[in-house]
Design a protein that fits this description.
single chain, 217 residues, alpha/beta, Methyltransferase, Methionine Synthase (B12-binding Domains), Chain A, domain 1, Rossmann fold, 2 domains, five-stranded parallel beta sheet, 9 helices, 5 strands
Amino acid sequence: MGETLEELQEAIRNFDEELAEQKTREALKKGEDPQEAIEAATEVLRDIGDKFEHGELFLFDLTSAGDAMNASREILEQEILDEGGQRESEGKIILGTVEGDIHDIGKKILSSLLAANGYEVIDLGVEVPASEFVEEVKETDADAVGASAMLTTTKEKQREIVETLEAEGLREEVTVMVGGAPVTEEWSTEIGADIYGANAFESVEKLDDSQQAAIAG
């Protein structure tokens, strides 16, 4: 690994978005392969994610590192597209916090971890209606939908997403993940979702298993 990529990794470890962007551009000017640069950046986030999961780092550390990694990744992915290439991807995932809910910390963590594990993430933001999830599936041919609900009063919107996918004839084509404070495995089963994650790490692990099963199957 070149010196500039090591400096990029250090910028991410130090949660420095501006420096991460600078080192990313420097790496490209020096002829570093953008795919290798993405792998170098995400390697740091995986390490930070592991430490967070084991209680060695705080939520702030994980989200801040994720922001720095994402700043680098956006530049690198655009470079790949400009060169006429395509980023290697484990799958295309649509994320959003359901309609009526503005909480997004958990979703941001999941987004960063998915990106670190090679997924292409389309983050629709917060207060996303079921119809928008479904329209995005149609437009992007996504492999999975991840819907977060942090309020008991909004988790019913997760059921609406499943029902809308069914009504549009898309349910069998997409994996549905649900999560959030009031969400349980029982709730996931009741509404017909495919994956329930008690946390972002579990969600990614289960999605990996699901994608591998689909490929094998």
